[in-house]
From TrEMBL:
It comes from Maricaulis maris (strain MCS10) (Caulobacter maris). Belongs to the short-chain dehydrogenases/reductases (SDR) family. Gene3D superfamilies: NAD(P)-binding Rossmann-like Domain (3.40.50.720). PANTHER family: OXIDOREDUCTASE, SHORT-CHAIN DEHYDROGENASE/REDUCTASE FAMILY (AFU_ORTHOLOGUE AFUA_5G02870), SHORT-CHAIN DEHYDROGENASE_REDUCTASE FAMILY PROTEIN. This is Short-chain dehydrogenase/reductase SDR. The keyword Magnesium does not apply. The lineage of its organism: Bacteria, Pseudomonadati, Pseudomonadota, Alphaproteobacteria, Maricaulales. GO terms for molecular function: oxidoreductase activity. Keywords: Oxidoreductase.
């Protein structure tokens, strides 16, 4: 097993799975975290091993703060933490609920912070640990859609900066803020393609773009407290609706 250990939350599906596979190809022992996606996470780990790498799938619920802390206490040292898992549910300020706020806070903010805290406790040498938080270009191009999600990711943006200060010099903390990268929210292929090109570059971020950014951060030991926005310039194109709805307006909004 590789002596370089990477934990990827949400590593069984979507962008997390692609990052986990890339790290496995780069020689990391990858802990592929999942909550309910056991089949997918085990398949990602098996594919890494079949390709000559080292990986295992592990289950814990990010919404359970006790389970989050207990997991890393049991595992011990982790060298790279990729906080990819998140909850992304539609609400707006006029209909946000206490439950939505709490659900997004627990998974999108509290869990990444608690994992980073537990990870940092095992590092004393300069730049021996690295945390990468997956954020969102929405933070630099605000609109009221996905309100609880946006608040939780704003808190994680602040945590990225302050944890970088607190954990230096042993652990670096950075973030990547992608634009629309994979279909979400029930988008079909046509809807995704339309939304993906609604930016100055006429093409949004791809999984390969995000993987290149992960590799750049890992290869740059002087980099900490930074957020890389990769979105085809989407954050430069201010709108009062999320790009998902700007590209595909509901029928009752069309005229």
């Amino acid at each position: 097993m590789s002596d370089r250990i990477a934990l990827v939350t949400g590593g069984g599906k979507r962008l997390g799975a692609k990052i986990a596979s890339a790290l496995g190809a780069d020689g990391w022992h990858v802990i592929v975290h999942y909550n309910a996606s056991a089949t997918e996470a085990q398949a990602v780990a098996a594919d890494i091993v079949a390709a000559g790498g080292s990986a295992r799938a592990v289950q814990f619920d990010l919404a359970d703060t006790g389970a989050v802390e207990a997991f890393l206490a049991d595992v011990g040292r982790v060298d790279v933490l990729i906080n990819s898992a998140s909850i992304f549910e539609m609400d707006r300020p006029e209909d946000v609920t206490p439950q939505s706020l709490e659900d997004h806070w627990r998974i999108n903010t509290a869990a990444p912070v608690l994992l980073a805290k537990a990870m940092a406790a095992h590092h004393t040498q300069r730049a021996s640990g690295c945390v990468i938080n997956l954020l969102d270009q929405k933070l630099f191009n605000l609109n009221p859609d996905f309100f609880a999600y946006t608040l939780s990711k704003h808190a994680l943006l602040g945590a990225t900066t302050t944890m970088a200060m607190a954990f230096a010099p042993a652990v670096r903390v950075n973030a990547i803020a992608p634009g629309i990268t994979l279909p979400s929210g029930g988008q079909n292929a046509e809807e995704f393609a339309r939304a993906h090109t609604m930016n100055p570059m006429r093409g949004g971020s791809t999984p390969d773009d995000i993987i290149r950014a992960v590799r750049f951060i890992l290869a740059t030991p002087s980099m900490t407290g930074e957020t890389i926005t990769i979105d085809g310039g989407q954050h430069l194109d201010a709108r009062n609706r999320d790009v998902m709805y700007a590209a595909n307006p509901p029928q009752d909004d069309a005229s």
